[in-house]
Amino acid sequence: MKATAKSGNSRSLLPLPLPLPLPLPPLALVLVLFCTAAIAVAAAGCTAGRTTATSTSASTSTSAPSSATAGQPGGSSSGSSGSGSGLPVGDRSAPIPPPGACTLGSRDRQALPDPSPRCTPGAVNPTVTQATITTTICVSGWTTTVRPPTSVTNRLKRQLDLAYGLATTTRAELDHLVSLELGGAPDDPRNLWVEPGSIPNPKDGVENKLNDAVCSGLVALAVAQRVIAADWVTALEAAGLVAAAGKVCLRNEPTRCAHHGHGSGSGSP
User: What are phi and psi of 78, to 5 degrees?
Assistant: First the structure.
């Protein structure tokens, strides 16, 4: 409806001013503000979710190659031998024990080395494995090709005399705990000890018999290496062998005896 105003005899139509917008009731205002805030929070949540997902994806793709690399072969493992004996692989730079650090033991009045890791745990030549015995330790004279020169063994004997608390003039053999004819490491101090007594000595005979047993297929190389490193006095028994009448045979099958005939050379240095 339009309002009219009189001016003389004429009439003029004048627009009435529009009414001011009414203020929102308090409850409606609260609802508007709540909805606006909810929309803002939802938008922020979506953005954060996209950012987190992107971040997680990037993190996964970054860490995956690292895990794969860690699983690849190579690098230093336990340092154990390829023969499966579990003994350390020979390292000529292995540290010499300090003076007095090692102690000789004994069994049945026979000398034994100190088996602690820093003294004489034994160590093996990585080129001698079960697959290579026919071209290494089972070949007559092979040990002469790997035996260290006296210039090396004389120096090592003096150092190991001191490590075992012995005088450097002690009559003794610088012995390979795992003998060369069983694939022992030639010049690793961890495989050498000062064995008092006469030369040759009873341990040499045990080494020869184990070599015959390995080369005849009676026992595995790894077994022979483990038992002689653990205790050379009981090594034949621990390997399931028995020696009689100059032969070495399986204890549980006494008719199965070594036929190789020792010929790779003595285990002495």
Answer: -75, -5
Q: Which pLDDT value is given to residue 223?
A: 98
Q: In 3D, which of 195, 233, 9, 245 has the Cα closest to residue 107?
A: 233
Residue 106 in contact with residue 233, Cβ under 8 Å? no
Residue with tokens 């003076």: 99
Compute and round to an integer the Cα radius of gyration of the chain. 43
- Model confidence at 119, pLDDT cuts 50, 70, 90, reads very high
Kindly report the average pLDDT of the chain as a whole number: 78
Q: 171-175: long-range contacts (C-beta < 8 A, 24 or more apart)? A: 171/196, 172/196, 172/197, 173/197, 173/199, 173/201, 173/268, 173/269, 174/269, 175/203, 175/267, 175/268, 175/269
The β-bridge partners of 248 are 243
- Identify the CA nearest to 191 among candidates 84, 76, 94, 264: 94
Amino acid at 191: N
Q: What's the pLDDT tens digit per position in 65-99?
A: 333 333 333 333 345 555 689 999 999 999 999 99
Indicate the SS3 state at residue 215: helix
Number of Cβ within a 10 Å radius of residue 147: 18
Quick: pLDDT tens for 216-236.
999 999 999 999 999 999 999
Per-residue DSSP letter, 103: -
Determine what percent of the chain falls in helix, strand and coil, rounding each to the nearest 5.
40, 15, 45
**Token output for 208:** 């020869």
Distance, in Å, from the CA atom of 243 to the CA atom of 14, rounded to the nearest integer, reads 136
Alpha helices in 71-149 (DSSP H): none
Instruction: State the Cα–Cα distance between residues 132 and 168, nearest whole angstrom.
Output: 37
Task: Please work out, in degrees rounded to the nearest 5, the angle formed at the alpha carbon of residue 80 by the alpha carbons of 78 and 81.
Answer: 155
